[in-house]
């Protein structure tokens, strides 16, 4: 009697109807580690852009990326590890963006044309990758001190790269007496300001509008 009663209780506890079995979580197909890593970083960047750094919890990231939370921990070990990975991705994107912009500037004919060409490449890249761009260009609530410090260091590295190109352009134009260091600050800060307009008001400001207006202003200042 006891055995029969126990068996009934046990079966009640484990038996599931076909409908209930179909409601169980469908796990995402197995993918290479690097693919999962990029997927999780992209999801984390979207959450940070929308909710701030405090809104990027491992639970939210797993749900956004459609993976088990254990997968995120297996790859990044901790929430801090994932934060570092997101910041590293943002720095890599920024570094590549600046390199392509400066390459375009070097190939242009004249300082004004160089600024126009470089700015165009820079802003087009920002428009293509708005979530990751927000992490380094817009103030995001709850950013850890380590993140803020890394962003400050990154901005200074960008300015130094701009400075090297500015010096080359000024020497080419026979204007080496101009203050290249000050110009490097102006170029970086103005490019970042225009990028923020693009991110905050994408329906109003496009890369084409911003670069064309900047070029027109440069021509007016030169001949005015």
UniProtKB/TrEMBL annotation:
<keyword id="KW-0804">Transcription</keyword>
<dbReference type="InterPro" id="IPR036271">
    <property type="entry name" value="Tet_transcr_reg_TetR-rel_C_sf"/>
</dbReference>
<feature type="region of interest" description="Disordered">
    <location>
        <begin position="12"/>
        <end position="31"/>
    </location>
</feature>
<dbReference type="InterPro" id="IPR001647">
    <property type="entry name" value="HTH_TetR"/>
</dbReference>
<protein>
    <submittedName>
        <fullName>TetR/AcrR family transcriptional regulator</fullName>
    </submittedName>
</protein>
<feature type="DNA-binding region" description="H-T-H motif">
    <location>
        <begin position="57"/>
        <end position="76"/>
    </location>
</feature>
<dbReference type="InterPro" id="IPR009057">
    <property type="entry name" value="Homeodomain-like_sf"/>
</dbReference>
<keyword id="KW-0238">DNA-binding</keyword>
<dbReference type="InterPro" id="IPR050109">
    <property type="entry name" value="HTH-type_TetR-like_transc_reg"/>
</dbReference>
<dbReference type="Pfam" id="PF00440">
    <property type="entry name" value="TetR_N"/>
</dbReference>
<dbReference type="GO" id="GO:0003700">
    <property type="term" value="F:DNA-binding transcription factor activity"/>
</dbReference>
<dbReference type="GO" id="GO:0000976">
    <property type="term" value="F:transcription cis-regulatory region binding"/>
</dbReference>
<keyword id="KW-0805">Transcription regulation</keyword>
<feature type="domain" description="HTH tetR-type">
    <location>
        <begin position="34"/>
        <end position="94"/>
    </location>
</feature>
